[in-house]
Amino acid sequence: MSGTEDPRRPVSSGSAAPPPRRSRSGSDAGAGAVAADASPAPPSPPSPMVVGPVEAGEPAPTTGRRKGRGAAPAPRTRAPWWLRIVAWVIAVPLGLALVGLPARNLGYLDSQKLLDVLIGKGSDRYLPLVVIVLLWALVTALLVQLIVEGGAWLLRRRRTRRAVTTA
Fold this sequence. Notes:
Blueprint: H1 81-105, H2 111-119, H3 127-166
Helix pairs in contact: 1-3
């Protein structure tokens, strides 16, 4: 090594780097060497869940999941697009009514406070409106969640009832 070469620099033979080695699978797995730095094989997908009656004396089918308190929840499916749109169309005005009417009846939001928002001075004039809008957003989000989850539950229940009656 000459004095001008950097000792931290890798030494090259001048040719391009060889292509990465692939792990072999199947019948020729033992025929070649697997690279030591190869990443491990990806985990296999979970076994499908078997649904149906279990005969007496047979072990119950397992899915590889734990049972009980720490069990993983069942995979969720998305609610249909039309149900989500209906949920928002219903929840926005209903949320405003559920927040606005009690606020008006309790005196928190009256015509004078709304007029102060338009012609008043200072940033504190917006506080009643900000509180109402935040509560409206919270109530609307809760209503949408209830409508979508409840509607999806009803659709699943109806689908299982139809499957039972046609089977």
